[in-house]
Design a protein that fits this description.
The complex is a heterodimer of chains A (about 550) and B (about 130).
Chain A: H1 2-6, H2 17-23, H3 25-38, H4 50-54, H5 56-70, H6 86-98, H7 104-124, H8 131-180, E1 184-189, E2 194-198, H9 200-206, H10 217-220, H11 229-239, E3 243-252, E4 261-273, E5 279-288, H12 290-341, H13 346-379, E6 389-392, H14 393-410, E7 414-418, E8 424-427, H15 429-445, E9 452-460, E10 463-469, H16 501-511, E11 516-521, E12 525-533
Parallel strand pairs in A: 7-9
Antiparallel strand pairs in A: 1-2, 1-5, 3-4, 4-5, 6-8, 9-10, 10-12, 11-12
Chain B: E1 12-16, H1 20-32, E2 36-40, H2 43-52, E3 57-61, H3 69-77, E4 87-91, H4 96-104, E5 109-112, H5 117-127
Parallel strand pairs in B: 1-2, 1-3, 3-4, 4-5
Helix pairs in contact in B: 2-3
The chains are: A alpha+beta (about 550), B alpha/beta (about 130).
Chain lengths: ~550, ~130
């Protein structure tokens, strides 16, 4: 080994300490290691890898030998600057040992065991230490022990201070987080819920100062008595189960003037256990949500008002329609009777014609009343009531066309239908007929004499496509988006109709799950299309009318 | 006089409506169709009439002051021999819920105002025994 080469026994006198150390280096090392490992006062040595444990001993032996050989030529400490002296070894020793949590006594014990080992070896080999040698041995080991001890002390003091500082910083950070948190936080300890901690937010929310710290909750906030919070807290303390609540009302004396204020909280009570497992306190974490609750209530109130208003309007309309229908009934009945009673004389014919005009007017008024009722319902956000049955839509279209045939004829218009194959849909027959009549009526209204109105029904994929086309003037493109809006009329000059028709047709179609649209070519005419879901899924009814 | 010009021959119709004009017109239509008609301007009046003149069918308005058509029908049907009497509601209230309420109250049909003479004759003919 290199160590062997570095030491020459030539310069050493047998029977002296230097000779002993060089000759029995390996043995010294082994024995010392054994002693250390077996010594109950150095338990941490067992966690030290053996090579590390042995590390300083060769260096120490080398140092001792060097000193013994050169002594007294070189005085103590002269070469400390260039070589690591005994104290340097002590410092290194301390550094290594502290990494393994050596206590100071352990480190010193380890080094003193080195002394014991050397002395035992001397005795075994009958080496009597001269005054100088003994002094050198003890002084070197003492020096090393002193250095190791002071270094250990220095390091642990340093570490302790650092720990203290970081603990302090940590505590400051936690305190800041706790104090400045946007949530209201407090810690209630024991059966009387003493306020142990309370952050700024909770003091603010409670309208209290930190003078309440250390007081039982119900003493600090007597207004809370009878509001149920103490029962909740007691339950958490008893059962050890977290309790959560949303928008809980608490009545607090925030201005300390005896007037209770309604405050709403989202909060959670968390039981905290002591080290022995018993529940010793409750951690309270709360958010004040008063403004949110108030805003929502206000919105709800507004919504209720709006609903009530629409409802009232709808009821009012129902009553008005009812009251309108009574005189309409009288007019209709009367006109019809007059029509019937009129004879074939010239005046009778004129009477009949006049009565017919009245009947038509009643019909229009009645339709308007019905449309207004439908619209009121739509505006109230209610769907149009429909009674769905299986209907042949071709039959419905034919009936609508037949009904309007006289009107068309009177305007010299032709209604052409392409309605042959029965085509079934699930729909409210009256409503679909109403939609078709409306579209055909519009077509009649906007088509000049000699024009043609076509009504068609066609099966497409899973749907039935109905169309009403005319050869009218068409609709300018910029007007199309408004077509289906209520109260809108293509020609504001025209006063025949309230502009409700198409909006109701659209509602009828959409209530059935269909779509409605228009194709229009200015100068050529328009075609209104709408779809209804086909009724294929339903088995055919043999008794179909 | 045959059944085409007098389709309601033999029917005894109690007609209840608080609107006098309408009542008169309805009565004239029904009478021309051959029905025997008694009119009542309200429920109280109607109850008096049914006791001395048991009708075969009731045609009544629904919304009337003091006692509405629903209550009237209940009262009429509480009389033993009139327990099965058919009744027609005539009303300007024609929303689905109004119709449902009328049927639930035991009316055979609700016919909506305004109505033509033929509608009135048809509905009475449909339900009169």
């Amino acid at each position: 080994m290199g160590d062997e080469e570095r030491f020459s026994t030539a310069a050493l006198t047998p029977g002296r300490l230097g000779w002993l150390l060089v000759t029995f280096r390996a043995e010294l090392l082994e024995r010392w290691t054994q002693r250390v490992l077996q010594d109950p006062a150095v338990p941490d040595a067992n966690r030290l890898p053996k090579p590390t444990l042995e590390d300083h001993v060769p260096a120490l032996v080398e140092r001792l030998v060097k000193r013994l050989v050169r002594h007294p030529v070189e005085p103590w400490g002269e070469r400390v600057g260039r070589e690591v002296g005994a104290s340097g070894i002590g410092v290194a020793h301390a550094h290594q040992r502290i990494a393994l949590d050596y206590s100071l006594p352990e480190a010193l014990r380890e080094l003193s065991l080195f002394r014991v080992t050397v002395l035992a070896l001397c005795e075994e080999h009958h080496v009597t230490l001269h005054g100088e040698e003994a002094e050198l041995l003890h002084a070197t080991i003492d020096e090393m022990m002193t250095a190791s001890a002071s270094e250990l002390e220095r390091i642990s003091r340093h570490m302790y201070e650092q720990l203290l500082r970081s603990a302090e910083a940590e505590r400051e950070r936690l305190k800041m987080m706790f104090q400045e948190a946007p949530a209201a936080i407090c810690l209630l300890r024991g059966q009387d819920f003493t306020i142990e901690l309370a952050n700024l937010r909770i003091l603010d929310v409670w309208g209290k100062t930190d003078s309440i710290l250390g007081q039982p909750l119900m003493e600090a906030m007597p207004e809370l008595k009878g509001q149920g919070f103490d029962d909740l807290l007691r339950g958490v303390l008893k059962r050890g189960v977290t309790y959560q609540s949303k928008e809980q009302l608490a009545r607090l004396d925030r201005n300390r003037d005896g007037l209770l204020e309604d405050v709403y909280f989202d909060f959670v009570y968390v039981p905290l256990r002591a080290t022995d497992g018993t529940i010793e306190s409750v951690f309270v974490h709360a958010y004040e949500v008063t403004e949110k609750v108030i805003a929502r209530r206000r919105a709800e109130g507004l919504r209720e008002d709006a609903v009530r208003e629409v409802r009232t309007r709808e009821d009012l309309l129902a009553v008005v329609s009812h009251d309108l229908r009574n005189p309409l009934s009288t007019v209709l009945m009367g006109a019809k009777q007059i029509e019937r009673w009129a004879d074939e004389s010239e005046s009778g014919v004129r009477t009949k014609k006049a009565a017919g005009t009245i009947v038509k007017a009643v019909d229009r008024m009645n339709r308007l009343v019905n449309d207004l009722l439908d619209l009121a319902q739509l505006e109230a956000g209610q769907a149009l009531p429909i009674e769905v049955e299986r209907h042949d839509v071709v039959e419905l279209a034919r009936q609508a066309a037949d009904q309007l045939e006289p009107l068309a004829t009177s305007r010299r218009l032709t209604i052409r239908t392409n309605l042959t194959t029965p085509t079934y849909v699930l729909c409210d027959g009256d409503r679909v007929q109403q939609a078709l009549s409306n579209l055909i009526g519009n077509a009649i209204k906007f088509t000049r004499e000699g024009g043609v109105i076509s009504v068609e029904a066609r099966r497409t994929d899973g749907e039935v496509l109905l169309s009403v086309s005319d050869t009218g003037a068409g609709i300018p493109g910029d007007l199309v988006p408004n077509l289906f809006k209520p109260y809108w009329r293509a020609d504001a000059q025209r006063k025949d109709g309230a502009g409700l028709g198409l909006s109701i047709v659209k509602a009828i179609v959409e209530t059935h799950g269909g779509r409605i649209w228009v194709d229009t070519v200015p100068g050529k005419g328009s075609t209104f299309y709408f779809t209804l879901p086909a009724a294929d899924a339903v088995p055919a009814n043999k008794d179909e009318k | 006089m045959n059944s085409t010009t007098k389709p309601l021959l033999g029917a005894r119709v109690l007609l209840v409506d608080d609107n006098e004009d309408l009542r008169e017109l309805f009565a004239s239509v029904l009478q021309e169709a051959g029905a025997d008609v008694r009119m009542a301007s309200g429920a109280k009046d109607a109850m008096r009439t049914v006791l001395e003149w048991p009708p075969s069918i009731v045609v009544s308005d629904l919304a009337m002051p003091s006692m509405d058509g629903f209550t009237l029908l209940r009262e009429v049907r509480s009389i033993d021999q009139l327990r099965q009497i058919p009744a027609i509601a005539v009303s300007g209230m024609t929303r689905a819920r109004d119709r449902a309420a009328a049927l639930a109250a035991g009316f055979q049909e609700l016919i909506s105002k305004p109505l033509a003479p033929d509608d009135l004759i048809a509905v009475v003919k449909r339900w009169a025994p």
